[in-house]
Structure formats: structure tokens, C-alpha cells
Amino acid sequence: MKKFLLTGVVMVLLLVMLGGFSLFAAEQVEIELFYYKQEIVDQMEEMAQLFSSQYPDITVKLTLIPNDSMVVLRTRMAGGDAPDIIQLQAYSAVFEFAEAGWLEDITDQPVLAQVMEGATNSVRYNGRIYALPMDLAGIGIIYNKDIFKQYNLTPPTTFRELRYVCSELKKNQVTPFAALFRANWSLGHFISMAHTTLAGDKLMPWLERMNQGQGSFADPVDPKELFRLIDFYKANASANAAEMDWNEQQAEFAAGQAAMMIQGLWSYGAAIGTNPALNCGFIPFPVNDNPADTKLFADVDSTFAIASTSSPAKKKAAKLFLEWLSTPEAIRMWVEECKLVPTFQGADVSKMDAPFQDLVSYMNQGKTNPWAFAMYPVAVFEDACKNGAQEYLFGLKSAEDVINYIDQTWQREIK
Amino acid sequence: MIISKKNRVFYFIIFLLPALLLYCTFFVFPLLQGIRFSFTDWNGIVPEIPFSLSKEQFENDVIKQLQAQEEVEFLRNYYQLDHSGQYYRLQNWIEENGTNRKLNDRERKKIKRVLKSVGISPINYIGLANFREMFADQRFIPRFERKYLFNEFDPLPLTLTVEEFRNNLLNHIENQDDQAFLLSNYIYNESKAAYQLIEQELSFAEDERLRLLLSENLYAQRLELGVIGFTLFFTVFNVFFSNILALLLALVLDQKMRMRNILRSMFFLPNVISLVIVAYIWSFMFRLIFPRITGISIWLGSPELAKYAVLLVTIWQGCGYLMIIYLAGLQTIPPELIEAAEVDGASWLQKLFRIKLPLLVPSFTICLFYSLAHSLKHFDGIFALTGGGPGYATTNIVIDIYKNAFLQNRYGYATAKAILLCLIIIIITGTQLYLMKKKEVEL
Known about the structure:
The structure holds two protein chains of two kinds.
Chain A: H1 2-25, E1 29-35, H2 41-54, E2 58-64, H3 69-78, E3 85-89, H4 92-100, E4 124-125, E5 128-129, E6 132-133, E7 135-144, H5 145-150, H6 159-171, E8 175-178, H7 185-199, H8 203-211, H9 223-235, H10 246-254, E9 258-264, H11 266-274, E10 280-283, E11 296-300, E12 302-306, H12 312-325, H13 328-336, E13 341-342, H14 354-365, E14 368-369, H15 378-393, H16 399-414
Parallel strand pairs in A: 1-2, 1-3, 8-9, 11-14
Antiparallel strand pairs in A: 3-12, 4-5, 6-12, 7-9, 7-10, 7-11, 7-13
Chain B: H1 5-37, E1 52-54, H2 55-63, H3 69-78, E2 79-81, E3 87-90, E4 93-96, E5 99-102, H4 105-117, H5 129-136, E6 143-148, E7 159-161, H6 162-169, H7 176-185, E8 186-189, E9 194-197, H8 204-217, E10 219-224, H9 226-254, H10 260-272, H11 275-294, H12 306-331, H13 335-343, H14 348-359, H15 361-376, H16 380-385, H17 397-407, H18 411-439
Antiparallel strand pairs in B: 1-3, 2-3, 4-5, 6-10, 7-9, 8-9
């Protein structure tokens, strides 16, 4: 009996060692790609395979963490185990990891030369570039063209027109906005969008002052004007919007019960998936009666960064992957299959759906505002803006309370 | 059986020692680590040794400050100027004899020590500041706040009762003009004992002014529980109701009846399902079914009702487990005691209060302990149902810790809260166990 046991143990050990050696023997590099965009799971697999077929000694292992990706990422980094390629939201997520030293400086990579002008602002920290901007996204009004046509409405370009559109829709028993108030993130986007659009040119100087510890959230705008937009949004959403989450919002919009929704363009995919016959357009949310101020809240959404802690071989492979992403076939997959608007110059987007075309046309005309919320300190957006906007909407806080809360959080964060 | 001394040592080594070691690695060590972090301002992502240092900082603050040449050379091995020429970056991989290897722990510790000697450490000790801040945090402690009742874009309220009108609106307006304007538009109606909106059409400017006046000044007082308040609210009600319900269920299902076993499993079933799935099922219920039964359409999205909604789900889910404990307790009561009481002519109530409940005290001890500890650190159910919202309405201390640590990058502060929670749980459950143990009767 004992003999058998012993031989068994030896055999197992031998097998394990053999396995170990055979892994070391081949000069395969496996890089881990960590991403959060759950709408492109199959597409990412396909891209990884295509890449590996061209670079046979590199395999890409995909890790998808859809919600709470930052939580997982932070815990992994706290454990010292960073993925080789990391998909990060532009601006503050990139900045915070770059500041902590987790990201490789890729300023000298040739692939960056192909990126659209201006897109690299979202990944530049202290003058160095730490990630490759990948896709552009916008937050605004996605509207149902058929409903607008039915009631003879034109897409609004001023707040007055928007009020008119809403009252007409209400008269015809159509909910103007499909909204979600149960979760706070969408309202966070809304308050930042309204604030940025109202601030216009004053945005960047204001941000600078805030980060020096002077100034207040109310400085570049008239707080009354800002907060009445939240009131307006609430008054024109369906009665049970407070009970609705993202899925329900998409369902309401896709079913044609509501004519518009204030959302990021990423939601369009879900709506069109539910109802392929949907005929949509994408416009900026007008905040005042000056059409020139009505600009689309659009910016770089996701980026790919390389971990500075990876081994040199993996870093090299990761850089090859980023380089490969700018090749025509990768861009084609990115556009046609992932349905994301690429940041590379001269990418052909003519095959994308109408709302994406709208986004690109606003981009090309330069009628966009940057995503200011991504430049706020993390806690300011995650806590003060999102919860503040939600609490204001539910009547739990006054406008001054919300502004004070944002200011206090900002002060604390820059300390 | 008498265990020999040799045997005792043997059992200690086989069973207790590994357990003790595991206990130390997985509990004692993290706890001490946690206590350490609670005194720091760590943000959760800064590594223990800096990955990059700016050129000036490295040359002026590190190299020039170091006394020993050996240490300077040691550091220069690991920090090298990158190609931009602005930063010294930590070489995480060392090339040695033609292969790359990762920095080992010994090297890391030494780098950390050397850098610390010149005052560079990414994690700073800030003493009790985290604990002090907690109690100054406006989110943490219960307080009175306002509840605004009117949205500028909604239709104007047609009538307001005298009390509402005076307390919630008129007394909040200081400006004499505004008061007069308001009183000219809302007229007191004696027959209804209420203020009524005048019937004639308002001009656009007047309408706008009245709306603004109402949206800013029509508010009532409300109690904001705060994170601590909500945690206690949740704990008290959850412990009370889930135990009462579980006890009643156990008493009923202890009777001889048909389908007893099926019913027992049915009541226990919610406990088997993951709370996240339970939450999704219930959020459908709250959205689609509850409005029809109760006539109230908003549950999870209402700042007032959301806390009762999450309480309801937690009680529904948790009471099956407690019921099993009570059932087990009831079944250990010797039947001859009950029979003897019956022979003596004891009524059902007398049997319950004189025999069953006193003998159930050990079960109470367990159930109370279990439900107290679980409600104080409840997380998954609330998180999946409301995510702590709307606003902070259902944020208990654990969700607050999660938000602080992972959404706001304040690990040090979050750890301090976690330590506080740990203390609260130890104190409350410890007191409860001590008091209950004294009450238990031996047969």
C-alpha cells in the first residue's frame, strides 16, 4: 500500500514538473487584457484571436469585469498584481493610476501619431502620455425620430424649444423623457453635463481655480439656472422614473413609450437591440436659449494603458497589441462590430448608425464640450455630484446644500 | 475516556496548531494590518514603495540626504531615469544572467526602509484624524434636514391646509413683499379650513415668481438618519421582526400537521437563494406588483420607503434560518414535560410561557447573536436592491465603507470606519451574549 502511495506521489510530482518545464520551454508570451465594456465581449475575443494569428507567439488573455471594474482593479493593484493591458476610463482614472506610477509612459509610441488631435488631452498627465485613447462617446438626448415626426416636432436647439417639445409630447400622452432616478450615476452625468454646457468657455479656468482650492461649483454658472434643469428633467420624466433602473429606461424608450432619453450613446446599442426598428437621432441637451451654447457633451470614453509593473517581454507584446489596434482591419472591427467611434484619424465611420454619425458630425464641427466630470477629483463626482443631484431631485437637499457639499468634498480631495 | 498527555500533544499538533496558524494568517494578521491602515491616509492605489519619483525629488530629497554611499548605489540600481529624462522609475524587473526576474521581497523591504529614512513614504500616518473626521462627517450622524415639497415645473398645489401653509411655507419667507404676494395668490377658505390658489389666470411673470417662491420655500422638517442611524434602525427592526416571525413560524410548524415538512422547506428556501438574486426578484415585485396591492408606486426609489422595503426583504430572507434554529430548540424540549403539564391541565398559553419559552432561551441566545451581528454588517441585499440610495437613504455602515474605499479612494478612512464597526459589533454582541447566558436554565 505504502509503495503505491509513494510511486503515486512521485508520479504526480513528475507530471507537475514536466508541465512546468514545457510551459517555460516555449517562448510564448501571454498578456492579460483587462476590460470593462461588456457590450463587446465576443468582439474582443475575435480581435484577440486575429491578433494572435498575426503574432503567433503572443496570446491575449481577456479578463472582463463589467461593473465595479475599478474596485477589482484597485484590489488587484493593492495586491501588486496589475493586468498587462488595462482598459481605463479617460481622464481621472488614467490620472490616478499614472500618479501612483502603475502605468507605463507610452509618449514615444508611434501609434499615438495616428490619434486624433485633442484626444490625447484625456490621457496626458504632467506632460506625459500614459494610455491610448480608444473610443469617443457622447452624452446627450437620444430621440425617437418617428415620434417626433408623428407630432410634427423638430429636434430642439434651445431650452425654450425643448420646453415646447416636452409640452407637446405631454399633450399627446407621450412621456418626454425615459429616465432612471433609482441609480444615481445617470443624474451625476446630467448635473455635470448641464454645468459644463452652462459654463461654456469658463470651464477650464474654473477647474484650474477649483484645483487650487479657490472658487466654488456655483462660480461659472447661475445655480438657479442649473438646478431648475434638474427640476425640468424630473417634471418631464415618467411618473415612476424613481423606480426605474437602466434596463427599464431602455425598455421604455425602445417600446416608444417615451420620445427621448438623456443618456450616453452607449445606451443606444441596448435600445436598438430591444427594438431593431427604432429610428433614432442624437442631439446635445440645450441648457439655455442661445443655440450657439448648445454643444454636445462628448469626449474620449475608454483608453488602453500598459502596466509599468509587467515584465519587459510582456510590455513589448502589449505595445505591439496597441500598435496593432491602429491597423485598418482592427479599426474596421472596432467600428463595424464593436460599434464604437474610434479616435484614430481618418477612420471610416460611414457604415455606423445615424446617432453615431450625429456624434461624429458634432465632433468634426468642433461643437463639443469636454467631459468635465472625468476631470473632477474622483470622490467629487462619485459621491458629491451623483448623490447631490439625486438628493436634490428627491427634495432632500436644496441647491445651496448640494453646491456646498460639492465644494467641501473638492476642498478635502485636493488637500 | 481519559486522554493521555501524549495523545493530547498529538491532537494539538494535528488539529489545533493548523487551525491556530490559519486563524493568525487570515484573521489576526489582517486585523492588525487594518488597525495600522486606519491611522493612515492611504488612498488604496499608491504602492508601498513609489514606482516613480520626479528627477528633482529623487536627486535632491533622496540621493543628497542619504549618508551611506552603499545605500545610494543600492537605490540607483533600482531607480533609473526613464527616456523622458523627467522621472526616476522603479525597475520592477531586474536583468540577471540573461534572464529577467521580478524584484523580491527582501529588495522591496530594503528600498522601503532606505526611502523611509529620508522621509519618503507614500503612506502617511495621520494619527486619529480618520476617527475624528468620522464624527464630523455630515453623512454619519443623525440630524434634522429639510424635505422640499414642490418642483418648479409641476402644477401648483391647489389647496394647502392651514398648518401646511403656515409651517411649511409662510414662516420660511422673510421678505414682506413675497409674503404679501403669496397671500394675494393663496386665499384662506374658512369652510375648508385651507388656503386655496386663486382661480384667475396668472400672468407669465407672476406664475414664474410664485413657482420659484414655492420651490424654494415649501419644505418640511425631516430626520435624516445618517449612516449610523440607519445601521441602528435596520438592526433593531431586523432583529426584532425576524426573530418574532421566526418564532411564530417555528411554533406553528412544530404542531402536528400535514405538509409540515414541505412548509418548513418552503420557509427556509429564501435563505438558500443568493441574496443578489433575491434582490432582483424583489425589485421586480416592488416595481410591478406592490404598486397594485398598495397603491404606492415608488418603493425602492423613495427616500422614505426604501428603508422599509429593504427591511422587508431582509426579514423575509433571513427568518427561515432563524426558524430552523427555533424549531431545533423546540424539538429538544422533552415531550414528557409537555405531557405532564397537559395532565395538570395547563392551557396552551401556559405551556408556551412556562415551559417552551424558558427552555428556548439557548435558541434565543444564538438567534439574537446571529441576527444582531448579521444586521450590523449586512451588505449584499441592500447593495443589490438600492445600492445604498436614493442618496444616502439606505446606506448602512458597511456600504458606506465600501463607497469610501472603492468609489472615493479613501482606504485609510474606510478602514477606520471598519475598525469602529468591528468594535461596535464586539461590544453589542458581547453584551447580549453575557446577558443571555445568565438567563439560560439547565434542565
